[in-house]
UniProtKB/TrEMBL annotation:
Protein name per UniProt: Glyoxylate/hydroxypyruvate reductase A
Domain D-isomer specific 2-hydroxyacid dehydrogenase NAD-binding, first and last residues per copy: 109-284
Listed GO MF terms: NAD binding; oxidoreductase activity
Pfam families: 2-Hacid_dh_C
Coiled coil regions in record: none
Species per Swiss-Prot/TrEMBL record: Kaistia nematophila
Length: 319
């Protein structure tokens, strides 16, 4: 009797996320070594790491590492890891994740467009009063970040009738979406935007990009009576003090924030009780780990069959 061929091993370093759903597809392969951090009996057996906010030591002494798979939409938690070896980093691109992000973005746009926060305050006060409602075509939505998530959200919002534009670092071409790019295009993009949706990755260039300078350049002549900020990218994109100041002086009339730095959001943060702010606990693109894990497993099988890895991160750009 001959021994079964041993497949390349997998290490799950899923941070505060339960590892079991991520491990499930690989656990059905008895010939594939599977380790759950920090229990790694044979580090030489590990060829792939599935990671979410992994500690630096998770990458130490892995002589046969071939690729790292980020378990979330963002990759800043991996790219910034000082112990990361020079191997490909693969981002998650999955229809489930994309759809959930688009659902959240669309929900938040509609909450502000249909004045839900004002109606909620009226309900609490038992007030029956109709508020003026502009049509979607009179409202200009700007998507900051036109990757997989931004593109899908832009296309769905455009189908609902909003005037949608997008901004990205490099030039993009999306049918039906006015596209701006680079620093030269940012001011023009902001100047035509009533609802700003931030979906850019967190990089050294984008850290703190949602600041007073950006809010000052948003449109003041829109149908909503002022601009709204929606951030589902990363907490490091936003300057909290600038958001609060802009809400207080009217440069922003509302905000929906799903991400913060640090997380969880502190119990004494003024965002919790602000009457014009929607807070959600980093759930905009919250997907089923079991669904995403199947996709990662499929990528690994394809890679082992000789196909190239897709959705690779450009480490020099940080996304």
């Amino acid at each position: 009797m001959t021994d079964k061929t041993v497949l390349p091993g997998v290490l799950i370093a899923s941070g505060n996320w339960a590892p079991e759903p991520w491990a499930a597809p690989f656990g059905r392969e008895p010939e594939r070594p599977l380790a759950i951090w920090p229990d790694v009996p044979d580090r030489a057996a590990i060829h792939y790491v599935l990671a979410w906010r992994p500690p630096a030591e998770a990458f130490a002494d892995l002589p046969n590492l071939k690729a790292v798979f980020s378990l979330g939409a963002g990759v800043d938690h991996v790219v910034g890891n000082t112990a990361l070896p020079d191997v490909p980093i693969v981002r998650v691109v999955d229809l489930d994740l994309t759809t959930r992000m688009t659902e959240w973005v669309t929900l938040q746009v509609l909450l502000h467009h249909r004045q839900h926060l004002a109606y909620a305050r009226q309900q609490a006060a038992r007030q029956w009063r109709e508020l003026r409602q502009p049509v979607a075509h009179d409202v200009r939505v700007g998507i900051m970040g036109l990757g997989e998530l931004g593109r899908d959200a832009a296309e769905v919002l455009a189908r609902l009738g909003f005037q949608v534009a997008g901004w990205s670092r490099s030039a993009k071409d999306i049918a039906g979406i006015e596209c701006f790019h680079g620093e030269d295009g940012l001011t023009a993009f902001l100047g035509r935007t009533d609802i700003l949706v931030a979906l850019v990755p967190l990089t050294p260039d984008t850290r703190g990009i949602l600041n007073a300078s950006v809010f000052d350049r948003l449109a003041r002549d829109g149908a909503l009576g002022g601009p709204v900020l929606i951030n589902a990218g990363r907490g490091g994109l936003q300057v909290d003090a600038d958001i609060l100041a802009a809400l207080d002086d009217g440069r922003l009339i509302g905000a929906s924030l799903d991400v913060f730095e640090p997380e969880p959001l502190a119990a004494d943060s003024p965002f919790w009780g602000h009457p014009r702010v929607v807070v959600t606990p980093h759930v905009a693109a919250s997907s089923e780990a079991s669904v995403l894990a199947v996709g990662i497993h499929r990528q690994i099988l394809d890679f082992e069959a000789g196909k190239p890895l897709g959705n690779l991160v450009d480490v020099t750009r940080g996304y």
